[in-house]
């Protein structure tokens, strides 16, 4: 038995299981205004970590603290085993960053913009050319000599990714990477990020308010609400926890709610737009899951018409609303899957 190689393998396994990003009880205040409250999160090597929250929840502030751009009022942030703000920032060379609305020189070409950045990083431009490699990775090599002022928003976003990949980082931090993109550009960015994670082993930390995109892309999710991380969960575990419900389309939703509570003893339900009611459980679960006709009959006898009856399953959107207590303001969602007010209009 080769004890030396076994020891090396053990050290490698321990290193790979160690968090590559970690926040420990991070709090941030601006004057008397609290922005983050005891934020703790853990990102493991190889994760596609979705940092999910409404606009203003504290996502960008958390990212800036993790990158050392903002100092926390209290708590600690660690990246790649280095305490942010204490250790020399050499670890930043192993991290790529794409912040929202990346800036470029519009009168320079894509190649020239990346060449300036490569020079600041001290990267060699000899063959193989890291600029060409980065542009090829994001499928922009044919546009290398085109002025950036003529780029679409989706092309600019891919160019920002190319810039973040120039030094071949281990971690890629992205703040709202699909914000403002059309559905085709969103799909392109999503597939590119998956490929980077799958083929190069890049760990991704992606902040977003777009629920559908997080669900399609990420393997693990942290939910932040009003400056607090309220949950971290594996996406596979979230699917396991998703609850099945009985959905009814009725003629009188308020009357239905009254009948459910006072005639059937059901309190775990949700009234949605369009006269739709979702029943999640009851004192006798078999009533919901095995004898839905008994519920329908009770509603009809109580003067409520039942147009449709079907089973469904809890989504990430419903899980988010349940954790955060429902929408608190005008959503910034879009047809691409933003946080909308249409779900969770009434939940007991």
Instruction: Kindly identify the CATH topology of the largest domain.
Output: Rossmann fold
* Strand-pairing-aware structural class: alpha/beta
Shape: elongated
Helix content: 25-40%
Mean pLDDT: 85
| Largest β sheet strand count, sense and barrel closure | 6 strands, mixed
Return the CATH class of the largest domain.
Alpha Beta
Number of strands: 15
CATH superfamily of the largest domain: P-loop containing nucleotide triphosphate hydrolases
| Percentage beta strand | 25-35%
End-to-end Cα distance = 62 Å
Task: Report the order of strands and helices.
Answer: HEEEHEEEHHHEHEHEEHEHEEHHEHE
CATH architecture of the largest domain: 3-Layer(aba) Sandwich
| Total DSSP helices | 12
Keywords: ATP-binding, Nucleotide-binding, Transport
GO molecular function: ATP binding
Protein name: ABC transporter ATP-binding protein
Biased composition (Low complexity): 329-338
SSE blueprint and pairings:
Blueprint: H1 3-17, E1 19-30, E2 33-44, E3 48-52, H2 59-66, E4 74-79, E5 82-83, E6 95-98, H3 110-121, H4 130-137, H5 153-165, E7 171-175, H6 183-200, E8 203-208, H7 211-217, E9 220-225, E10 228-234, H8 235-241, E11 244-250, H9 253-262, E12 269-272, E13 276-279, H10 285-289, H11 292-301, E14 306-313, H12 316-324, E15 346-347
Parallel strand pairs: 3-8, 3-9, 6-7, 7-8
Antiparallel strand pairs: 1-2, 1-4, 4-5, 9-10, 11-13, 11-14, 12-13, 12-15
Helix pairs in contact: 3-4, 4-5
């Amino acid at each position: 038995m080769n004890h030396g190689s076994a020891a090396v393998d053990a050290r490698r396994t321990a290193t790979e299981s160690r968090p590559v990003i970690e926040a420990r009880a991070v709090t941030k205040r601006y004057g008397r205004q609290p922005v983050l409250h005891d934020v703790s999160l853990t990102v493991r090597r190889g994760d596609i970590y979705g940092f999910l929250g409404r606009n203003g929840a504290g996502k960008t502030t958390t990212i800036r603290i993790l990158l050392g751009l903002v100092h926390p009022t209290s708590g600690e942030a660690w990246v790649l085993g280095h305490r942010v703000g204490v250790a020399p920032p050499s670890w930043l060379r192993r991290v790529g960053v794409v912040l929202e609305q990346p800036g470029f020189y519009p009168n320079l070409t894509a190649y020239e913009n990346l060449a300036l950045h490569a020079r600041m990083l001290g990267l060699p431009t000899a063959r193989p050319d890291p600029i060409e490699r980065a542009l090829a990775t994001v499928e922009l090599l044919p546009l290398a000599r085109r002025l950036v002022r003529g780029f679409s928003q989706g092309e600019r976003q891919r160019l920002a990714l190319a810039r973040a990949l120039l030094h071949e980082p281990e971690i890629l931090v992205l703040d709202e990477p699909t914000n403002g993109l059309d559905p085709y550009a969103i799909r392109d960015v999503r597939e590119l990020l998956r490929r980077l994670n799958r083929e190069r082993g890049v760990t991704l930390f992606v902040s977003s308010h777009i629920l559908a995109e997080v669900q399609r892309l990420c393997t693990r999710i942290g939910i932040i609400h009003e400056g607090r991380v309220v949950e971290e969960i594996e996406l596979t575990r979230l699917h396991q926890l998703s609850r099945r419900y009985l959905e009814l389309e009725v003629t009188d939703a308020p009357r239905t709610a009254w009948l459910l509570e006072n005639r059937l003893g059901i309190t775990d339900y949700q009234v949605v737009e369009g006269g739709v009611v979702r029943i999640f459980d009851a004192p006798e679960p078999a009533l919901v899951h095995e004898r839905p006709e008994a519920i329908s009959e009770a509603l009809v006898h109580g003067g409520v018409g039942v147009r449709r009856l079907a089973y469904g399953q809890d989504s990430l959107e419903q899980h988010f609303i349940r954790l955060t207590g429902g929408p608190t303001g005008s959503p910034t969602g879009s047809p691409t899957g933003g946080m909308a007010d249409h779900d969770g209009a009434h939940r007991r």
